[in-house]
Task: inverse folding
């Protein structure tokens, strides 16, 4: 797999040990629901080299390194090369030059974790018009701007999950705040909207959401926002950061603060990143899923589309041997939900390494 970084980038980290044990994907099959048709892609990939560009939101985010690991794992058996490029910052339009470059390079596919649901659409449509497969990974644009979307979890219920997660670490009562990524991030906004709907409907009545702030997925700004929350809200009981950068920054701030243990940090983070804060008592629990699975699914789906002209659509069932649970049914607008969240705490965190 070809791995290229524009600027400085951390090397991809290892995945959960149980996923390391999975054999490399040597072939794949796809079954169309209601149609007795299936195929193995191994023979097709043996004669074809697929060029893929993956564009994460920004550089230096360990979450996206894990997705790259998933691409790498699948690419070995799919005769695929994957180039990884990304902007230094997660601005709404910062990914456009990288999409344009991929179009010029005539790649077979572009996979992108979008920083904005709408700003990238004209450029992504140009890519599709040029015959390039476009997939969104870990976030989405409008459906007309890509062929399919691989999301980590069911976004429609994750907002509720985050509120309940906060309640679980502060005994169901008290003031709390969201520390999000960027204000334009489609995935973050979907989760925050879901949380608001749940709260407005009476969910977790003992909690009081006092603020939502944005750290722009930058460690320094996220830490500054966390410090500001602690100063502005003396009765704050928890910060929920549904972003790997934000949760680590908030945990770092609390780990050296007199408020350690009095204000809880939870949200979404990687085990390797958060292990020290769980072990020193700063963090009781947090969650994530297997980001690498998104990369594995995306790589296999690209070959499905290119090798057999498969048309992703609602109701289609795909099956990839050796990849996660093995089968997925595409939902509305060709959205694939990779899997459920996993909670990490002091009892289980040493069982996970990514």
Result:
């Amino acid at each position: 797999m070809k791995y290229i970084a524009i600027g400085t980038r951390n090397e991809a980290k290892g995945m959960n040990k149980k996923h390391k044990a999975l054999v490399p994907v040597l072939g794949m099959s796809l079954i169309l629901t209601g149609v007795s048709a299936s195929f193995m892609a191994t023979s097709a990939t043996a004669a074809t080299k697929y060029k893929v560009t993956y564009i994460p939101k920004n550089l230096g985010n360990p979450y996206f390194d894990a997705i790259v690991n998933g691409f790498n794992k699948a690419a070995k058996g799919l005769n695929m090369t994957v180039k990884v490029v990304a902007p230094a910052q997660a601005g709404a339009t910062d990914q456009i030059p990288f999409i344009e470059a991929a179009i010029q390079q005539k790649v077979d596919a572009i996979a992108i974790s979008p920083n904005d649901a709408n700003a990238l659409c004209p450029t992504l449509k140009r890519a599709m018009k040029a015959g390039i497969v476009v997939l969104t990974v870990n976030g989405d644009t409008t459906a007309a701007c890509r062929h399919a979307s691989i999301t980590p979890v069911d976004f429609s219920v994750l907002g509720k999950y985050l509120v309940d997660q906060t309640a679980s670490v502060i005994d169901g009562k008290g003031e709390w705040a969201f520390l999000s990524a960027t204000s334009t991030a489609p995935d973050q906004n979907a989760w925050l909207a879901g949380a608001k709907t749940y709260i407005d409907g009476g969910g977790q009545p003992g909690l009081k959401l006092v603020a939502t702030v944005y750290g722009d997925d930058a460690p320094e700004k996220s830490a500054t926002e966390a410090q500001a929350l602690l100063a502005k809200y003396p009765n704050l009981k928890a910060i929920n950061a549904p972003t790997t950068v934000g949760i680590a920054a908030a945990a770092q701030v609390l780990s050296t603060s007199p408020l350690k243990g009095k204000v809880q940090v939870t949200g979404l983070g990687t085990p390797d990143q958060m292990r020290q804060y769980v072990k020193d008592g700063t963090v009781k629990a947090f969650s994530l899923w297997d980001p690498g699975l998104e990369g594995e699914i995306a790589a296999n789906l690209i070959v499905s589309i290119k090798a057999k002209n498969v048309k992703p659509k609602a109701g289609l069932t795909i099956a990839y041997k050796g990849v996660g649970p093995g089968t997925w049914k595409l939902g509305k607008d060709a959205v694939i939900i990779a899997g459920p969240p996993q909670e990490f705490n002091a009892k289980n965190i040493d069982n996970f390494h990514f």
About this structure: The chain has eleven helices and 15 strands. Confidence is low (pLDDT under 50) at residues 1-46.
